Amino acid sequence: AGSKVIVLPQENKKDLEEIPAKIKRDLKFELVENMAEVLKIALEEKS
């Protein structure tokens, strides 16, 4: 299974506290401020 990336607005950072740790450990959260940052994450090559 590959890594799972969740892209969220920076304003939702406080909401991450509501997600149980056992769920968060299998996910990578990217907090963004604008659409350019979303595109950078979406288009970056897998390393």
Relevant terms:
47 residues, alpha+beta, two-stranded parallel sheet, 2 helices
Q: Which structural class matches the secondary elements?
A: alpha+beta
Mean pLDDT: 90
Radius of gyration, rounded?
12 Å
How many independent structural domains?
1
> How can the largest sheet be summarized?
2 strands, parallel
Number of strands: 2
Q: Give the overall form.
A: flat
Helix content: 25-40%
Poorly predicted regions are none
Strand order of the largest sheet: 1-2
Continuous helix count: 2
Straight-line distance between termini: 15 Å
How do the helices and strands follow one another from N- to C-terminus? EHEH
Percent of residues in beta strands: 25-35%
Q: How would you describe the overall organization of this protein?
A:
This protein has 47 residues and is of the alpha+beta class. It has one domain. The mean pLDDT is 90.
